[in-house]
Amino acid sequence: MYNGYEELLHYIQDPKNWRDLEEELSARGVKALTFYDVVLDYILMDAFEDLETPPSSVMAVIQNRWLSSGFKETALTTAVWSVLKAKRRRLKFPVGFMAHFYTISEQLSPLLAWGFLGSDESLRETCVFFKEQVIGFLCDIFNFQKCRFNTVDNLAADVLINLRVRVQNISQRLCAQG
After folding, report:
1. Which parts of the chain register pLDDT below 70?
2. C-alpha 166: how far from its chain's center?
3. pTM
4. Name one GO cellular component term (predicted).
5. Last residue of a domain, one of 103, 119, 135
6. Cα–chain-centroid distance for residue 30?
7. Per-residue pLDDT reduced to its tens digit, 106-115
8. Do both 10 and 84 map to the same domain?
9. What beta strand segments (E) does the chain contain?
10. Shared domain check, 114 and 49
């Protein structure tokens, strides 16, 4: 995952890729190439939404009480990888942003899917906590009591403060788990 992340950073930092990146993401409904629009809205919020209504075939396996947890987790991982592989084959830019994103997703998505849908209660609690922190951060940055909207500098400072609080909350939770 780390290598995929490093490759994604290298890709997005190269100005030669920006036109393709913008075309690729705008075709997926991303209005602006900002952290909010790409990471928070397109990646995280869409993922949370997808996990709330998983395919019926996935739920049939997850809810089958005759299957072991290990088998369910393997089946879910295989299903996630299959979906990502199919999506990768349909990419207009086979080495573009989405290809890099899918490389990272192949590592994270099975764990998060199992966390939200599987039987590991501790992992589910951690995943739900993460989701709550992300949604809480989004609420914070649009809250007039938590962010000053009078200048761009004040807004930026308040958004950063709110982000640090949420990252600290997540870090503390993960350290307590590990």
Report:
1. 178
2. 15
3. 0.84
4. mitochondrial outer membrane
5. 119
6. 15
7. 999 999 999 9
8. yes
9. none
10. yes
Q: pLDDT tens across 56-70, in order?
A: 878 888 889 999 999
Q: What per-residue confidence (pLDDT) applies to 147?
A: 97
Two structure tokens written together for 85: 């592989």
Sign of CA dihedral 162, 132, 175, 34: negative
**Structure token pair of residue 68:** 């072991």
**Angle in degrees, CA 172, 175, 177, rounded to 5:** 110
For residue 131, give the amino acid letter: K
Q: Residues 156, 90: one domain?
A: no
Rounded Cα distance between 51 and 63, Å, is 15
Q: Indicate the number of domains in the chain.
A: 2
Name the maximum alpha-carbon separation found in the chain: 59
**Angle, helices 97-117/2-13, rounded to nearest 10 degrees:** 140
| 21/107 same-domain check | yes
Cβ(43)–Cβ(101) below 8 Å: yes
CA distance 110 to 45: 17
